[in-house]
Amino acid sequence: MRFVTVRRVFCQISIYIRLVPVPSVMVDVVMMKQKIKRGKTRRLKEWMAEIRRREDEAVETYESEGMYSESAFIEQTNDGDFLVYYMESEDARRAYEAFENSTHEIDREHKEVMKETLEDERSVGEYELLYHLTHPNRS
């Protein structure tokens, strides 16, 4: 397991990445957690729904980013709401660099919404990957 810090336009995240075998490729696995600004959870949910509606456009960005999958969750706590994000990619650093330099409209909009809705650039969670399994015949 290797520890890396990755800078993304709207976040400073500390992540654990472990290379895990998937049919004929290696995968970087990332999980992060960020505080949502008070009163901005609805706006964030609206944007995530927009991403789902524009799935073809979002998935198109995966090619340049080397992404396999990504998921976003809202965690509601007594301390406020948090965005929890998970992704699988060929190379996490390459994925973040491609995102930062992207000319895709959906990526530009995503950066704006993240800046608008997230409290700051810090990740509030550090996660140690214990295991990551993938079905060998996953398509």
Summarize the structure.
The chain is an alpha+beta fold and 139 residues long.
Helix content: 25-40%
Q: Low-confidence parts lasting 5 or more residues at pLDDT below 50?
A: 1-24
Determine Rg (CA atoms, Å).
15 Å
User: How far from one another are the termini?
Assistant: 26 Å
The helix/strand series, from N terminus to C terminus, equals EEEEHHHEEHH
Which descriptors apply to this entry?
139 residues; globular; 5 helices; alpha+beta; disordered N terminus
Describe this structure in words.
With 139 residues, the protein is of the alpha+beta class. It has one domain. It has helices at residues 41-53, 55-60, 62-65, 92-100, 105-117; strands at residues 2-8, 11-17, 20-22, 25-35, 67-77, 80-89. A hairpin with a 2-residue loop joins β5 (67-77) and β6. α1 (41-53) runs antiparallel to α5 (105-117). The protein is globular, with a radius of gyration of 15 Å. It starts with a strand and ends in a 22-residue tail after the last helix. Residues 1-24 have low confidence and may be disordered.
Write the layout of secondary structure elements.
Layout lengths: L1 E7 L2 E7 L2 E3 L2 E11 L5 H13 L1 H6 L1 H4 L1 E11 L2 E10 L2 H9 L4 H13 L22
Antiparallel strand pairs: 1-2, 3-4, 4-6, 5-6
Helix pairs in contact: 1-5
